[in-house]
Design brief:
With 344 residues, this protein is mainly alpha-helical. Helix content is 69%, strand content 4%. The chain contains 11 helices and 5 strands, in the order ββααβαααββαααααα. It has a 3-stranded mixed beta sheet with strand order 3-2-5. It has a two-stranded antiparallel sheet with strand order 1-4. α3 packs antiparallel against α5 and α3 packs parallel to α7. The longest helix is centred in the middle third of the chain and has 34 residues. The protein is globular and about 65 Å long.
Length: 344
C-alpha cells in the first residue's frame, strides 16, 4: 500500500538521527507548523508481490548467498596459501574476491530477513547505508577489473617493464588509490541524498535501496544529484571501461602475432576469464546509472541491480576456478589429505 502525503527530513538532523514523518493530504495545509519527529521507514517490495513465491525466492537467494560467500572465501584462501600465486594478477583476483565477499552481504541479508519476518520496512538510515556500501563496492569491482586488464596488458605487451610497473609498491598504491576514490564517490552521493526531502510514496519496488530509484521518490530538486551521477559516474565507469577495452584489444592483437600455440591459449584463457566478468558488470551498471531517467523501467532495473550486486559476485569464483588451472591446483593442494592432516 502506498503512503500518500509528504515525507520531510529535518534540516538540523544528523545522518545517524534522520527522522521523517508521513502526512496525509489533510495535514498538508498545516505542515509548516508541525514538529516532524516520527521515525522514517521505506517499504521494499522485493522481486515479487505474490506470497506463494516468497519461499522460492528466499531459498534461491539464500543458496546464491552461501555459494557466493563460500566460493569467494575459497579463492582468497587458495591464493593466500599458494606461494606461486603471489603475483600481481592473483593479488588483484584475491582483492576482487574479498570485495565480492562483502558485496553479497550488502543487500541479501536484509532481503532474506524481510522475507522471513514478513516485513517490508527499512529505516532511511539503513537505506542510505546500503546505497553507500553498494556504490563503494561496485566502484572497487570497477577499479579491480581495470587493474587486472592493465596487468594482463603489461605482462603480454610490455614484459620488460612489467616488474617495475607492477611491483609490490605499485600494486599497493593502485589498490589504496582505488579505495580512496571509491569511498569519496560513495560519500558524495550519500551526502547529497541526505539533503533531500521525500514525498508522495515511501514504496521502493526493489529488494534493496537503489540510488536512482530513491531519487525518483524525492520531491526536492534532484538536478544536482542527477548531474553528479552522470558526470562523476560517467568518468569513474566509462574511462576504466574504455581502458579495459583498449588493453584487451591491444593484448589480443599482440597475442595473435605470437607463433607459440600454448602461449596463445594461456593468454586467451586469462583474458577471456576477465572479460567474462567485465561484460555483464559494465552492461548492467551503465544501463542503470548512465541512462536518461525517462528510459528507466522498474522491472528491468530491478533485475539488472540483482545482476551486479548478487549474480556477478557469486559467479566470480567459478569463473576463475573453472577456467584457471593455477587456482584449481591451489584449491586441490589446499584440501589435499596431506594439507588437512598438517592443519589438524
Amino acid at each position: 500500500m502506498r503512503a500518500e502525503g509528504l515525507c520531510r527530513r529535518p534540516r538540523n538532523s544528523s545522518l545517524t538521527g534522520l527522522r521523517l514523518v508521513w502526512l496525509s493530504p489533510q495535514d498538508l495545509s498545516s505542515m509548516e507548523r508541525r514538529n516532524y519527529t516520527s521515525a522514517s521507514e521505506c517499504l521494499l517490495l522485493g522481486l515479487s508481490s505474490r506470497p506463494e513465491q516468497e519461499e522460492l525466492i528466499f531459498g534461491f537467494f539464500l543458496a546464491m548467498y552461501l555459494v557466493g560467500k563460500a566460493g569467494n572465501l575459497l579463492i582468497i584462501l587458495a591464493i593466500g596459501s599458494a606461494s606461486r600465486l603471489h603475483t600481481p594478477m592473483y593479488f588483484f583476483v584475491s582483492q576482487l574476491s574479498l570485495v565480492d565477499f562483502y558485496f553479497l552481504s550488502a543487500t541479501i541479508p536484509t532481503m532474506l530477513e524481510n522475507i522471513q519476518t514478513q516485513t517490508q520496512a527499512i529505516s532511511y538510515g539503513t537505506c542510505l547505508g546500503q546505497i553507500y556500501i553498494c556504490i563503494l563496492l561496485a566502484n572497487m569491482d570497477n577499479f579491480l577489473l581495470t587493474a587486472m586488464a592493465y596487468d594482463c596488458y603489461l605482462a603480454i605487451c610490455h614484459l620488460l617493464h612489467y616488474s617495475s610497473k607492477m611491483s609490490l609498491c605499485g600494486c599497493t598504491l593502485m589498490l589504496g588509490s582505488s579505495w580512496a576514490i571509491a569511498s569519496l564517490h560513495a560519500l558524495l552521493h550519500t551526502l547529497l541524498m541526505a539533503q533531500l526531502d521525500f514525498c508522495a510514496s515511501n514504496v521502493i519496488p526493489y529488494c534493496f535501496c537503489d540510488l536512482i530509484l530513491l531519487l525518483q521518490l524525492s520531491c526536492s530538486d534532484t538536478q544536482l544529484d542527477q548531474f553528479m551521477i552522470v558526470l562523476v559516474g560517467g568518468l569513474i565507469v566509462l574511462l576504466p571501461f574504455l581502458g579495459i577495452l583498449g588493453s584487451y584489444t591491444h593484448t589480443a592483437v599482440t597475442v595473435l602475432r605470437v607463433h607459440y600455440t600454448r602461449g596463445k591459449q594461456k593468454a586467451f584463457s586469462t583474458c577471456g576469464s576477465n572479460l567474462t566478468m567485465v561484460i555483464p558488470f559494465y552492461d548492467t551498471i551503465s544501463g542503470i546509472h548512465l541512462r536518461p531517467s525517462s528510459s528507466h523501467s522498474t522491472d528491468k532495473d530491478s533485475l539488472a541491480s540483482v545482476m551486479y550486486t548478487v549474480v556477478t559476485p557469486m559467479l566470480n569464483p567459478f569463473i576463475y576456478c573453472l577456467s584457471n588451472k593455477d587456482t584449481q591446483g591451489a584449491l586441490g593442494r589446499l584440501f589435499s589429505p596431506k594439507a588437512l592432516s598438517h592443519r589438524l
